[in-house]
Amino acid sequence: MTHNSSRNTIRHFALHRIGPVELRVISDIEAGVIALTEVEEEVLCRYSSQPGWPHRVVSLFVLSDMSPLQRQLTRTARLPPGGVAALTYRPVVNVYDLADSTACHIFVNETAMIKEGYWDDRLAETALLAHEHGHPLAENATVRASRELTLALGLSYEKPLSTTDEDSWQDKLRRLLQVVTDKLTLYAPREIFTNDLVLRSEFTDAFYHLDMINVRNAARAVRSRPALVAGLTVEPALTETGRTTFLALADLKAHLDLALEIASFRRMGQDTLAVNLEQVLEREVFPHLVPETAPAYRAVVELYRSLTPDMASDDMAGFAGQVAAVLADALKPYGVTLEATIEGPDA
Predict the structure, then answer these.
(1) Do both 198 and 282 map to the same domain?
(2) Is residue 1 part of a domain?
(3) Which pLDDT score is estimated for 337?
(4) Which end of the chain is more exposed for a tag (fewer CB within 10 A), N or C?
């Protein structure tokens, strides 16, 4: 994990014992590592006493950025939506092997943590680490079924997106849509069942605190939307259809992710907390976006509430198709027809 540059040189290494777990802490930064280690110990203490806890060794890498992990995972086939490049923006990642559950590797990205307002916030750090450690414990039939499916998008347009390079802009829109759709459909069970587990494991205060930061961040991000509008307006290659379509997708992408978080409060009967979070969205976020954003958010949350832990591939494919249909409905007013083809392992 050591790299030639001083940026990725190990500056901190420690071994800790938490019940049955050996915790190894490796860091290329110094400030904040001990406090973060204390949070990790608390999370491990709570989880490792649960039935089914699989790990005997946990390696916690606290890094200035994710470049060491990105170099390691370049050839890995199965990655979250967005692939290796998206790891740059992920604050915390858990890398574990489904075939060998004795160990896991938690990577904390200091740069992303600071950017999102999580760094040195003990409750936010607790929620993030509880979520990442919850992934192996939240494995179930539905999650396994979701891994067996692939989703292909078919797109058609009433009017051109571009005046000069239609193929290039259509390809760009398809790639952006693919990441959004994959995350909201096939990747959703992993996130939602993990968030359910976080709440069942009594990390509720921490998880609510983290999500309130996230909806406040969304409200703050709305303020930079005029810059996006201005950038699209002066893009000479885009038609009016192209500009409005890319803006609509940006609005949907930025805020449908929050459905993955807030749905679990609904699923676990924490409706008051869900309402508190959604009131910020309703008051400070949705009024500034394209009108399709709020209905799409509500429809996706309702579909997420329908997820059960025992879904077979066909059930999961049906669920993914319904979520994709919500996106299709939201894009239809912009002259974009989206069709999703979901195939299982036997296709």
Answers:
(1) yes
(2) no
(3) 96
(4) C
Give me the pLDDT at residue 39, please. 95
Domain final position from 60, 88, 120: 120
pLDDT value of residue 33: 86
Q: Which domain holds residue 69?
A: 6-120
| Pairing mode, strands 150-157 and 100-109 | unpaired
18 and 167, same domain (yes or no): no
Which neighbouring-strand residues pair with 155?
338
| Phi–psi pair at 276, nearest 5 degrees | -60, -45
Give me the pLDDT at residue 346, please: 66
Q: Does residue 306 contact residue 296 with C-beta atoms inside 8 Å? A: no
Do 68 and 151 sit in the same domain of this protein?
Answer: no
Task: Judge residue 152's burial from the number of C-beta atoms within 10 Å of its C-beta, 0-12 exposed, 13-18 middle, 19 or more buried.
Answer: exposed
Residue 132 lies in a domain: no
Does 165 share its domain with 231? Answer: yes
pTM for the whole structure = 0.90
Say yes or no: 71 and 212 in one domain. no
- How long is the chain? 347
Flag residues of the chain having pLDDT under 70: 1-8, 70, 72-88, 346-347
Report how many domains make up the chain.
2
Residues 115 and 185 in one domain: no
Tell me, what's the pLDDT at 304?
98
